[in-house]
Specification:
Purple Acid Phosphatase, chain A, domain 2; 6-stranded mixed β-sheet; 12 strands; globular
């Protein structure tokens, strides 16, 4: 990315010149970045790590802009057209604006997205808060966990479902977060593992969920006030096949009540619908988090964000409560999903 960005700006602005030093600059910057990041991680310098991640996010945005402009220039060349000015300075300004917007958007507290669902097999209304991809640790501070607590207490849901990638760090470092989460709706929190819980170690993650008071559902179900909640481990990381997935649903589904499937990665929705799941909840995609990652996410799943329907089944994919890596979001938002299940009298 360094090479593409530096060489493009040297060719498209009068400010930057492609000198002998400039040719080695991408190697110098990349090597320096890697060494500084290793140093920050090893010495637990979270502030330096956050700066480096912001730099990485800004570099990616610059690379994306340059890539788009290279394609644009190629199209103009085919059409035998030329622009009367260089694109370098306007691109620099655009890049700076996008970076600032991205930082501001990620810094905002999560918005509350409300979805109402008619549920013929429930006789009473239920309010569910769906939280996923908090990535507590690294660049997501305990202060952000406090903001989440305040929102959830204000919404006062009947239960909270955590869709994985909740903890980004080991059990010891997660304690400031678990202490905050433990205060919210005791005995009314349920969750599943995301791929990042596997990266940190399953026992570490299980201990964190337990201390936070989140009932971890690993390929099992639990009945909560006439709602059957089925939790399936992260399908991609745990390498759960379609057949294994369907076997879990057939074993755990309750045909006499409303069935919610909680799993981190939004795949196998058609199989869930075929096996009588009323509502599937997933995260993982972050809705791309930073443009144009949303286009890359679509290569892995057609369910990148929003609400989807298959027969009588619904799938809700959230963009995530916070973010992963660079504390930046562009054309996406931090969010908490509130689902109002509107029961019908039988």
């Amino acid at each position: 990315m360094h090479t593409a960005v530096i060489f493009w700006f040297c060719q498209n602005t009068a400010v930057f010149v492609l000198s002998s030093f400039t040719k080695f600059l991408p190697l110098i910057l990349t090597t320096s970045y890697v060494l500084l990041y290793i140093f920050a991680r090893k010495n637990n310098l979270w502030f330096l790590e956050e700066i480096l991640l912001i730099y990485l996010g800004a570099l990616f945005i610059a690379f994306a802009l340059v890539f788009v402009l290279i394609l644009f220039s190629f199209i103009l060349k085919i059409l035998h057209l030329t622009l009367p000015f260089n694109l370098g300075i306007p691109t620099l300004i655009t890049w700076a604006v996008i970076v600032l917007i991205s930082l501001f958007t990620a810094a905002k507290i999560p918005t509350v997205k409300t979805i109402n669902l008619q549920t013929p097999n429930l006789t009473e209304n239920k309010k569910i808060a769906f939280v996923a991809d908090t990535h507590f640790g690294a660049t997501v501070s305990p202060k952000r966990a406090e903001s989440l607590r305040r929102i959830l207490e204000k919404e006062n849901p009947d239960l909270i479902l955590f869709g994985g990638d909740i903890f980004e760090t080991n059990y010891k470092d997660s304690i400031p977060y678990t202490d905050i989460l433990a205060k919210i709706l005791p005995s009314k929190k349920f969750g599943v593992l995301g791929n990042h819980e596997y990266y940190q170690g399953l026992e570490q993650a299980r201990n964190s969920f337990n201390k936070a008071g989140i009932n971890l559902l690993e390929n099992r179900s639990i009945n909560f006030e006439n709602i059957n909640i089925i939790g399936v481990n992260d399908i991609k990381t745990a390498q759960i096949t379609k057949q294994e997935f369907e076997n879990i649903l057939k074993r755990e589904r309750n045909p006499n009540t409303f069935n919610i499937l909680l799993t981190h990665t939004p795949v196998y929705f058609e199989n869930a619908a075929k096996n009588g799941i009323d509502l599937m909840l997933s995260g993982h995609t972050h809705r791309g988090q930073i443009w144009p990652f949303n286009f890359l996410v679509r290569l892995t799943t057609p369910y990148t964000y929003g609400q989807f329907q298959d027969e009588k089944s619904n799938l809700i994919v959230t963009s995530g409560t916070f973010f992963w890596g660079p504390p930046m979001r562009f054309l996406t938002n931090n969010e908490i999903v509130i689902i109002n299940l509107q029961g019908l009298d039988k």
